[in-house]
Amino acid sequence: MSEIKVVPRFSQDRGNADHGWLKTFHTFSFAMYHDMNHERYGALRVINEDRVASHTGFGTHSHREFEIFSYVVEGELEHKDSMGNVEVLKRGDIQLTSAGTGISHSEKAHGDQPVHFLQIWSLPTTSRLQPKYFTRHFSDAEKQDAWVRVVASVNAEGVQKDLREGSKQGEGPAPVQSPLTMYATLLSPRKSLNLAVKGMKGYVHVVMRSGYNEGPATGATIQISGQNLKEGDGAYLQVPLGSDVVVENVGDRVAEVILFDLE
Questions:
Q1: Would the pLDDT of 147 be above 90?
Q2: Domain Pirin N-terminal spans what residues (predicted)?
Q3: Cβ–Cβ < 8 Å for 81, 105
């Protein structure tokens, strides 16, 4: 069986900016950050790791023809949109907005604490869809040393695609109009996990849990096919057909890992 090819995307090489109210990293070209070598990967177009100061955030703005999801790491994220959805998202929550023909929304830190979340965009396979909004909740206990499918293609097995309007309605992954599946885990030291991916491309990201860091990555450490990745690091994966992705925690603390199967 052929070896999985791992092309690291080290944290210090990502685009990043400190705007005071917002500290952000960009895996792909975004806003004022442009890198022709990192524009997208499969259906993935944006992976931003954002920290928003308390009582601030992204004011009302518009999107169309993107699938936009937020994975809350710490703090509380207040969401409001033009479909009438108003919700405060907490750790373990994932919110997905299928922008379709167009929506307007705001995303702000709720309460007196900052919020740390991943903002992810993907490209839909069908244009001019009706905008929709979904939320799901996945506890730390569910993710402990296990892969949890938090987002999946709308047509994938077990996906409830008609429940919406917030309030964590429905079970299983949030339905995305893109050919991807997003998994999450909290991997303990000296533990490893296998994942049989469907596609031949993947992307992995280690969440920067131990604090904002513009320099070389530190903290929790995982290994894939001999490549070490620390908090904030990611990697492009090229997966031979029939191969499993094996992620091992080789550090001394729990690693929060996000893995995309790009079908």
A1: yes
A2: 16-121
A3: yes
